[in-house]
Amino acid sequence: FFSFCMVLHDRTVSEEADEPTRPASWIWYARLALGLAIAAVVLYTVTHLDLMKANLRTLTGWMHCHLLLGSLLLVLVYAIGTICFFPMSLVSICAGYVFGWLAVPLVISGAALGMTGAFLAARYIFRDFVDRAVQRNPKFLMIDQMLAREGWKIVAMLRIAPIIPYNVLNYALGVTDIAFVPYASASTVCIIPGVFLFVYIGKVAGSLESIFSGKSEAGLAVELSGLAVGGLGIVVFLVFVTQKVRSALQEAEGYVGLQDEDSNSEP
């Protein structure tokens, strides 16, 4: 998010240098307001940790008692947070703590809504703004060329091995030629492993709390062993898949570079 903002800031600075009499853009003020709002939230959270913990316990208790409304609230918060560039990993962990494995389809639903919302906003509302920002990134230019050749396969690889931050990618892909259905399908399917990992972390936290508070009926050794084996399996799978995807992206990048050299060498 902050790297994305820096690109936008550099663009604004260069434009203002070229046109010194031009008034500041509303976009600059919007970024400033957003940054101040985020800083205020962080400052309030740090200085009111006890209150935040109490509110979190109250919220989780309410969700336990109102499962349907809590589920809808989670999906809505996740979708809005994704569109607004908030890091949603912590929300996934909290969802796993509150809902257990039920959080997996809820998080996927919210993420799918957020990803498609950001994609459509970049394509139809903020296209010129986003396009100017991402075109200065050489890595994105290479990815754009790979998308023209491989389409949804590159989207899937980028979701599994995020060489571009998750929230930035949602907007960046909106200014490419990828169609909506391949984007939405590949994005939704390929975030599932990561969702499982973060939800699992939250579920482990909830299970450990039950174990050490005496609420769990399962034996301590059996429960801890199951948690450890399951977590290790998920991590090993993600590391293996990520390495394979990164290798495939490097091969595709080399192929695109070779094709460009061949086209440039033609008379």
UniProtKB/TrEMBL annotation:
Keywords: Cell membrane, Membrane, Transmembrane, Transmembrane helix. It holds the Pfam family VTT_dom. It comes from the Eukaryota. The keyword Iron-sulfur does not apply. The keyword Magnesium does not apply. Residues 86-203 form the VTT domain. It is a multi-pass membrane protein. This is VTT domain-containing protein. The chain crosses the membrane at residues 26-46, 67-100, 106-126, 180-200, 220-241. One of its GO terms (cellular component) is plasma membrane. It is found in: Cell membrane.
